[in-house]
Design goal:
Alpha-Beta Plaits; 8-stranded parallel beta barrel; TIM Barrel; alpha/beta; 4-stranded antiparallel β-sheet; homotetramer; about 350 residues; 2 domains; 10 helices
Chain lengths: ~350, ~350, ~350, ~350
């Protein structure tokens, strides 16, 4: 619930509202509305909201939020969240940020080559997957913890920022010293224990949209992370499952401007999984930026013909450079830069 | 089937292949392949294809087409089709073409105001719907033939090119003298008699994608029109039906680059029906052009607050001018102009 | 709108309400509610509903219908519609009715064999398709009007009732003398001119659900037919398009009990198109009847290995007899008979 | 891969094939084919399959499996798996098994009342959810481990078998002493660590289908469990996400006969989540059994008007008894009993 205080409400009146809510088991958040008045957001189960708040002194009105999520909504924070990654990269501001790298780590050479190619083309963060969630138990499951040393080496040699996917709560703490950002994949968008663990991490989190999730469900998943205290969530559109068979998924770019209106969190797009078709990655990257996305997550493999997974959608370094040039032109046309 | 002739095949050898196919009830189309050799496309039911074509003199090989459509495919025509509308407008070339206007004609004043606003902002063709297919028999069904006089008046006064939807075979001939382009809506994408009637028209045809059509089905619908002799088909992506409820449809921009690779026909995008959400029309228009679309079909109403249908998605003239300015910038970034 | 009259309202008061509505362009329907009071349904565009009806003498209340369709709803008619086909068959009553026959007519012998096999197994109506709507212009388009003589012959020799699909308004009158029932296919569920033509026919109509239609859209399509004066509409669930690729369509049996609660019209199920998989036709037929369907529309071909279309889903006569025996047992378990 | 041995192949020839496969990192499973010959299934990553197996003495042929899953397929085990729960209940045999109970445990009284009502009506296993996966972090998350004592009490007092959902790997061992069956919910169908943990449990596992999972993906998820050594997996269809909004999900009964043809594992149906509509639970339960399901998982609440979650779909005890009577009649019609 949102409790709007009267203009000139006194501090003790505000305190009484907060006390009252907190005694009912809710947390409170002070919000400064555009109109200048103080609003107190009551975070938690709405059914716990105490009766009679409207009648307290200094209270102007009490109303329900527009959406079931709270901390993620623009009613709780109107200005855009800017997520810092490392010391120099920010996602959600004027600059478009591109994250690129192979589907999964296969060897030190492969990741090093990928890092150099990504950096040369202007990517700021390296996709560096240790664990691969695979539909079949017999598929390549990723290099696993054996890859931690590779991460260290690549970070030292190239200075690239790194991100990696976590599949289990235990992995969050394990990978934290080695990466700058953690990622929760689409199959785990509603793995609530994992979301809570990411919410207790100090690292920023990329949360990928589930392949049949509505935007409200997506933002409620983000709310699980925010609600544990981690404000640094980057949403990633990666395609939804529809009747279409000519693409692996249907990249849903409508979600980009719609999410930007519903939430203050940054939104990036993964055109590689979102289409699953090599030739669509570059045009859909241009379209994503034109639609208002804050960045891209692109699969690029230094030797894609021998990739152990997702062969059909990983760009070559040369095609990735073309993508970056074209995306940069579109970014300029919509008032952004790389 | 595609019959590739040997280099240096003689005219009588080519004639024999054509004769043989035509006696079996197939039509033939001569195609000059990129490699320089002559290819004869056999148009019709593949099961009628005569045995033994490979053995004819001068024949190099006989192979099945990659797709079930033929005339629409890049194997039958590799260069882009450019559809002329009126004397001065071409869809499918370097220039982006925007079609705009109200959801349906409501009055002479309304259409005239819309035409002027559309023209001023740079639209080249006016959307001018006489007949409205409505989900309910009790909804406003369009002004009908009573609107033909309005079309004449608006064309005379503004010089705008006009397009209108046809719902029944009989309407094709009726509207032809009054408009420059006819449109087949998404509900009729597989109304095969209507497609055939449009295929016998001299006017170019906008064919909208059915809301649950694959691209192969979409191109087979276009093939019905091409197969009757009308080569001027413009494909229009207008959103598909998915599990998403936060938008009216899911505008599927993946279809734009994918269609461009499958067919030589121009592809435009309708972001108004494709999203059904006012605030998404402009960002998705930018994205459509960035993805490679050849044009847009946008609902704009001079007095949208009083519109008789689709109130929620028709732009005001002011917002339409903003759209045109932003789309123009993106067009420039991808090497196109308005 | 639904106008409920007070108990004991006088005839002239009722007349005044009807007059008032009819002068506004609405039609009226007298409904006797379960509670015993007289309700006047106002059929047409709700926005035409005259102001002040509540204030007329004898009027108890005025309220909006629960659904956008009217004549099709249980608010307008609570008892089940029973559709008579020929002299002896009724759809929608206690008895389950099975319609069976080949996907399309191929020859006199084929249809005659099919009719005999269908009749022997207990089917009451023969599926006898003259016109085949085909995704490709090069597919077999049906035998067309040349098949009318075959219909006559088969009817004379076997006494079977016949049904056939119509694709164009002109075909309705042409086929009427030859068949007992006409069918509108899923691609034409929103071909509104065709619906209106069927609404002016004297034959009962099978209306198939569009493959991406909601039930409200389905019933609004039925409303187009009812609104022209033909009350004999049988709804047919035939599968929806989903992400599933292991079946051709997803037969949506939820629609059966849901439709039965929304409308008084009979509901049958087409498990052949609904699944597209031979081995699923019989189990899904059992399930349809268990869910409450009033009948089935099943593809059965006397020589299915040589069928010109839909080879994969047409039952052999032997398998059709098994289906009938199993369906009969399930019908008994839910209080129905064959 | 499936290695078929020649008739009369000697033991040492079989041993050599197994050795060869196991040295390549594959496991082997001896299968006795219907034709009487010995087949050796090679379980693991097909790309590891050693070259030259065909050339080994005693080998008749080597072929790829029809599906990407192995242990779950009918090629690896043709006879139906019968899953024992407790001492007296079997799922997958002639008898239909019904699992019923509230959406979640709310109190000892609630679960005890539910157990008694379920048992009286003929249910064999009690649904007893400790942990509730909730879309919102602010929703009721279940009673948690505090409910373990309730489970003990209810088991002691009623003798009912119990099943409960696990959300995290750590919960598997914790709940094992208290329940007879564990359940993995639809959001966790591809939580691969959780599947592996269930695969190491001694309890039978209900695996619910993800709401956008194909059947191949579903069976690959089951394969994760089987591959860890737990053969007792019961598949549960619970509705898929489609464009339909008039039901919460689209219960996909096509999956029942299709799964039964692809796998030897038992298949049950959850009509409560599968439809989300109270009035559809009973008809869709009848339809599920008619389609060939081996059991049902039904939400029933002793006081459903005060339920803390899923109020709209939990049956009253009285309606549940009606369901049981109707399902029993349908079971009889398809040769099953309760």
């Amino acid at each position: 619930m949102l409790v709007t205080m009267k203009n000139g409400a006194r501090t003790e009146q505000v305190m009484r509202v907060r006390d009252c809510a907190e005694r009912s088991g809710l947390r409170t958040k002070e919000i400064h509305s555009a109109a200048g008045s103080l609003v107190i957001g009551l975070v938690g189960d709405d059914s716990l909201c105490p009766m009679g708040l409207e009648a307290l002194e200094g209270v102007e009105s009490v109303e329900k939020e527009k959406h079931p999520f709270k901390l993620a909504s623009r009613q709780y924070q109107n200005h855009d969240t800017i997520v810092r990654v490392g010391d120099e990269v920010s996602i959600g501001g004027q600059k478009i940020v591109v994250i690129a790298g192979p589907c999964g780590i296969e060897s030190e050479d492969q990741l090093l080559d990928a890092a150099i190619a990504a950096k040369d083309a202007g990517a700021k963060i390296l996709r560096a997957g240790l664990f691969k969630p695979r539909t079949s138990p017999y598929g390549f499951q990723g290099i696993g913890l054996a890859g931690l040393g590779i991460l260290e080496k690549v970070r030292d040699e190239t200075g690239m920022l790194l991100e990696t996917e976590v599949l289990h709560t235990d992995q969050v703490k394990l990978v934290e010293p080695f990466v700058d950002m953690i990622r929760i994949g689409m199959r785990n968008m509603q793995n609530f224990d994992l979301l809570r663990a990411a919410g207790r991490s100090e690292k920023p989190v990329i949360l990928k949209r589930g392949c049949s999730a509505t935007l409200t469900e997506f933002l409620l998943a983000a709310e699980y992370i925010l609600n544990e205290g981690n404000p640094n969530v980057v949403l990633c559109e990666r395609g939804i499952r529809t009747f279409m068979t000519e693409t692996r998924n249907t990249l849903d770019l409508n979600s980009v401007p719609l999410l930007k209106s519903m939430t203050h969190l940054p939104v990036i797009v993964d055109p590689s999984h979102g289409t699953g078709v090599y030739s669509l990655v570059t045009p859909m990257s241009r379209a994503a930026i034109a639609a208002g996305a804050d960045g891209l997550l692109v699969e690029m493999h230094p030797h894609s013909e021998t990739a152990l997974s997702d062969k059909a959608q990983q760009l070559t370094p040369a095609d990735f450079r073309t993508l970056m040039a074209q995306v940069s032109a579109v970014a300029g046309a919509v008032g952004r830069s790389m």
